[in-house]
Amino acid sequence: MGAMRYSAWQILKQGLTGNAGWKPIWRSPEPSPEYDVIIIGGGGHGLSTAYYLAKNHGITNVAVLEKGYIGSGNVGRNTTIVRANYYLPGNSEFYSHSLKLWEGLEADFNFNAMFSQRGIINLFHSDGQRDAFVRRGNAMVNQGDDARLLDRGELRKILPYLDYDQARFPIYGGLYHARGGSARHDAVAWGYARGADMRGVDIIQNCEVTGISIENGRVTGVETTRGPIRAKKVGMVAAGRSGRVAAMAGLRLPIESHVLQAFVSEGIKPCIDHVISFGMGHFYISQSDKGGLVFGGDLDFYATYAARGNLPMVEHVMEAGMTLMPMIGKAKVLRSWGGIMDMTPDGSPIIDKTPIDGLYVDAGWCYGGFKAVPASGWCMAHLMATDRPHDVARNFRLDRFRQGNLMDEEGTGSQHNLH
Ligand SMILES: Cc1cc2nc3c(=O)[nH]c(=O)nc-3n(C[C@H](O)[C@H](O)[C@H](O)COP(=O)(O)OP(=O)(O)OC[C@H]3O[C@@H](n4cnc5c(N)ncnc54)[C@H](O)[C@@H]3O)c2cc1C
Questions:
Q1: Structure confidence at residue 415 (pLDDT)
Q2: What does the alpha-carbon distance between residue 361 and residue 364 come to, in Å, rounded to a whole number?
Q3: Domain end: 311, 343, 375, which one?
Q4: What ligand 1 atom has the least distance to the C-alpha of 44?
Q5: Cα-to-centroid distance, 135 and ligand 1 (Å)
Q6: Which residues of the chain have pLDDT under 50?
Q7: What is the reported pTM?
Q8: Are residues 154 and 215 in the same domain?
Q9: What integer pLDDT is reported at residue 14 of this predicted model?
């Protein structure tokens, strides 16, 4: 496909020859009339699905159809936290698999995604919360991942800037997940896009799918703003638009779309080494390599397709930040933005076949789908190639909502916006 392999040698060579030899990192092909596989949605999950279809299964006659540009969806809007700290069987092994893939990802797709295992600390503020975190930590260790309980003294040494003695929410300690961390979100999309393109996948931007063609219960292709395209198999991987895309095939998914906001401050000197999350309010924070404090909170709580949020949640997040670390008040907020979350009733995702032959769905990632990008693509590719669920994604079934086998990690019950 003509793409070049990146290396220190390549940087040296290009540097000495006026940097004139760098090539676009993926092609911009015209859509072919037919593919073996079409993936609807060029976000992290769609691109990683295409990448692993080609790499793991040798299926390269594949197109990823993206209505905007690569990185314009949530894969370029999230706060980039990567972790494997789930509790329930079904989720645990999936996110554990994903973290292992993250650990080898940059070497695998030959792209710098700035993956940084800076450690995640979840704070607890009561005896009950400590018990819950001990239980979660044990589940993580049983799964083969890492977890360590830090008491208040240990925590104070690592995070001296927190307010430990607030009357309302004194900090008792934290659950430390050292292998967790963050990555550069859009570079993850670019790395997967480039890796898929190098293996022959067509990445087609500005190509919106407007219809799904079905004949005798079997998918035959899609209608797009660039004309009809036939396909033997179609994967719907459209994150916040999942419900609308599935509706084109006459399906109603158990998903509500909600907006989630995030914020970044002006760049300041390095002061926050980890990812920290507050246990008594919806607030989490890390510092980007550029120096900006990157933070966020909860959903805006109403269903919408508008990728922007409202002021009450901004106020809530700022209040929680000030409660936890009053020093943050000196930093100016530079930007805020929103993204549309595909919320399921139990907060866990779906990777499954649909009742229509050849039509598959990967959706319901709620606000935790960035860390899932590698394993989701791995498992969706496995499903689409073999027609069998991958073992670590076997519980992410579409029919669990009908059968009542919910995977409710947070124990908040069947309500989309509470997960
Ligand atoms: C503010 C915020 C913070 C977050 N923080 C984290 C975090 O810290 N850690 C974490 O793990 N997760 C986080 N998430 C969640 C994570 O970003 C998402 O779960 C994940 O990115 C969704 O998968 P995706 O990358 O494939 O989505 P997207 O990038 O949204 O990809 C879907 C693509 O489908 C395209 N599409 C839709 N309809 C069509 C159509 N009809 N035709 C063609 N293309 C179509 C869209 O344009 C889009 O590009 C956060 C999300 C937000 C918004």
A1: 85
A2: 10
A3: 343
A4: 25
A5: 30
A6: 1
A7: 0.97
A8: no
A9: 95
Rounded Cα gap, residues 357 and 380, in angstroms: 15
**Are residue 173 and residue 262 in the same domain, yes or no?**
yes
What is the residue range of 274's domain? 117-180+256-343
Answer yes or no: is 60 within a domain.
yes
- Does 241 reside within a domain? yes
Q: Using CA atoms, how far apart are residues 63 and 39, in angstroms rounded to an integer?
A: 6
Q: What is the pLDDT of residue 2?
A: 55
What is the CATH number for 161? 3.30.9.10
Site to probe by mutation for ligand 1, drawn from 120, 237, 310, 367 as the one with most ligand atoms within 8 Å of Cβ, is 367
> What is the DSSP annotation of 57-78?
H----EEEE-SS-TT-SGGGTS
Question: Which residues are within 8 A (CB) of 289 and not within 5 positions of it... i.e. 6 or more apart?
Answer: 114, 116, 184
Total count of domains within the chain: 2
Do 52 and 127 fall within a single domain? no
Residues 398 and 261 in one domain: no
What are the Cα distances from residue 77, in Å, to 26, 74, 185, 370? 21, 5, 8, 10
Residue with the two structure tokens 């997040």:
317
- Short-list 212, 219, 200, 246, CA closest to 362: 246
* Closest atom, ligand 1, to C-alpha of 307: 53
Task: Supply the pLDDT for residue 414.
Answer: 86
Show the DSSP H helices in 279-333 as ranges. Answer: 311-324
Distance CA 389, CA 397 (A): 9
Tell me if 199 is assigned to some domain: yes
Instruction: Give 151 Cα–ligand 1 centroid separation in angstroms.
Output: 36
CATH number of the domain to which 203 belongs: 3.50.50.60
Helix 44-57 and helix 373-386, axial crossing angle in degrees, nearest 10: 50
Which amino acid is located at 86 in the chain?
Y
User: What pLDDT was estimated at residue 229?
Assistant: 98
Asked if residue 147 lies in contact with residue 135, where contact means CB atoms within 8 angstroms, the answer is no
Domain final residue, candidates 317, 343, 369: 343
* Structure tokens that stand for 174 in this block: 């934290």
Q: Are 51 and 109 in contact (CB under 8 A)?
A: yes
Same domain, 338 and 351: no
